[in-house]
Structure formats: structure tokens, C-alpha cells
Amino acid sequence: MAAVGMVRLMRMYDDFFTSVSQPIAQVLVSLDNLMDRTQYLNAQRTFQSLLARDVIPIVNENDTIAVQDLKFGDNDTLSAHIASLCDADYLFLLTDVDGLYTGNPNSDPEAKLIPLVENIDDLDVDVSGGAGSAFGTGGMATKVNAARLATAAGCHTVVMNSNQLHTLPDIVVDGASNGTLFLAVPRPLVGRKRWILLQKPAKGYLLVNARAEQALNNDKSLHGIHLVSVVGNFEAAEAVALVVKDSENGDEREFGRAIVNYGAEDCMKLVGKAGEDFYDIVGFGGAESVAHKNNICLWTPEGEEARLADHPDINMETHPSVNNLEDLAEFMSDKPSRTPSPSPFPTS
């Protein structure tokens, strides 16, 4: 049925854009296209070529061939991947509420709109509730996850009500504000490291110590002495989530991804061990690191968080819910303890 509906959908797009003399192109992608490095680069060149010719690509997931285990699953995640692929400045995620709230505004009368998010890990919000409408596959949780992907790639992300679509030019051109703005990290990932971060992680993760997070922020490789435990199962050369326990509340927080040199079984043997002991432990010669620094990428590269002060072009005073910057500063200073960061893909 997806193949039948796509023809009609594209005809609608074509009729609309033809009326304003705007050429368009149809691009169908699946997650396995972007997980393969060569296909990822080919897709990137395709988008660059289309945009250089002022052609607007209409992107959809290739549902006719995508299998369940290799699907984006929702348009929020798909759009974040494409925004990263295209080096977009902004990603707009439209919904039926005014932005991200501290709770579900449909059931919580005390829920407040969050106008600005500098660091997603500081969020303490209820994003439960599933799809936002009968016509969507994603809810607010998928939008937060998509914002994590896009901001790590240097793309500001705005979650806003679809009835405010007319404000997009003001936001992009004049720095106006609407909905919830997720600021892009100041040192976005590029090249291969960006591609690694967009990989679907294996069904397992590495729990590491605080020393590991500090070392990786200083561009070091991951070694056995950094490992606390190995959770789940994965094979060598798979992308694995890197998780650390929060020192304040003990919650586990994902802070990056790594393509590992060894599978879960061998990694378990290396927990707490030095690299030079590798041969004696596993019985064969190989890389001394669990993951090389070139195959490690972090959600907040070098630990440097985004700050509104670094973006004088963004005018938060134009936001409908912000009376003045002093009120916004007070709201932003009241940050809760870090909560576990959601993964853009389920790991089980």
C-alpha cells in the first residue's frame, strides 16, 4: 500500500510546487542505506547536488523495502538524519502543541512550555504518551531524540505547533523564537564521526567509569580499564552505546557511541584490565583498545555544552512566552539534576 500511496502523495507535492515554479525531487531512503558508509556518502552527494540546483528534495522512508529491524520508524528520526546529512542550519519538528512542556499539557494543568534547551541531558520532562496524533508515528519522545541527533550534528532544532508555520522565515532569517529551541552543540561532529553517531546501536551497551568519559572528551581511546560492565550482546565492528552512571543520582546516562574492536564476550573479559594484558586474557593478538578514538563520538563533543550567549543572532525576547531575558535566565538557572538520556533508537 505504501507504493500506491506514494504516487498520489508526490502528485500533490508536484501540483503545489509547480504552481510556484519550484522544481522538486523524490528521495526514498531506508536506515540500512545510511548505516552503510558508501551509501551514506552517495546520499549526501545527491542532496548536495539537488540543493545546489535549487531543487527541493521530498524525502520519505522507503517503506516498500524497509524491514522492521532497519526502519527509522518515525518521521522525526528520519528528518534528523537528513538534516545531519545536508548540514542543515535548522530542523523544524511540527506537532499539535506549542512545543516541549515540563509535562503533558493535555493532562497536566501545571505543565509549562520550555522555550529553550541548551543541554538535552538537563531535561526533566514527561514525554510519554506515544504518537502525537492519529496521523503520526512519533510523539514528543521521538522529537527529543531527533533533537539530540540533529544538535550533535550542528543543527538547531525547533519543536513547534504546525499552526505557527508562517513564523519559519522570521526564525531562520531574523533569529525570532517560537516553540522550543534546542541549541546545536558548539563543536558539532563532522565526517566519519557524525556518521558513527547516527548509527543504530547494537542490542547492548558498555557501562564505563567517570574516568572514561573524561578521557574520551580529551580524544583518547577506550580501554579495558575504563569498563565497568558489558550489557547485552553485540559483535565486533558494531556501533555500541557508551553509558556512564550519574554521580549525583546514580542513573545511567548515554553520552556517546563507539564502533568496538571486540564483541561482548571478549569485552567482558577485558573489564578493568590494561591493554598490554589483552593477549593473555583472550588468547589472540589484536588491538589494545576496546574502541579506537577515531571510532568514538560523543553527544557533547569535548564536553562543551551549547549556550544562548554564544548565539547573539537568536532573539529569545520575541518568544510568545518570554516576557524578558531576566525571566528566561531564571527559568534556565533552575535546572534539575541530569536524567537518563534517551537513545534515538531502542536498544532492545
Question: How is this structure best described in words?
Answer:
This protein is 30% helix and 17% strand. The protein has 348 residues and is of the alpha/beta class. The chain has three domains: 71 residues, no CATH class; 140 residues, no CATH class; 107 residues, PUA domain (Archaeosine Trna-guanine Transglycosylase, Chain: A, domain 4, Roll), CATH 2.30.130.10. It starts with a helix and ends in a 15-residue tail after the last helix.
What is the overall number of helices?
A: 11
- Overall pLDDT metric: 86
Q: Please report the total strand number as a whole number.
A: 11
For the terminal residues, how far apart are their CA atoms? 28 Å
Biggest pleated-sheet summary: 5 strands, mixed
State the low-pLDDT regions, or none: 130-137, 336-348
User: Structural class, judged by helices and strands?
Assistant: alpha/beta
Radius of gyration: 21 Å
The helix-strand sequence is HEHHEHEEHEHEHEHEEEHHEH
Assign a percent range to the helix content: 25-40%
Question: What percent of residues are in strands?
Answer: 15-25%
Strand order of the largest sheet: 8-7-9-10-11
Number of domains: 3
Could you say which overall geometry the principal axes of the C-alpha atoms support?
A: globular
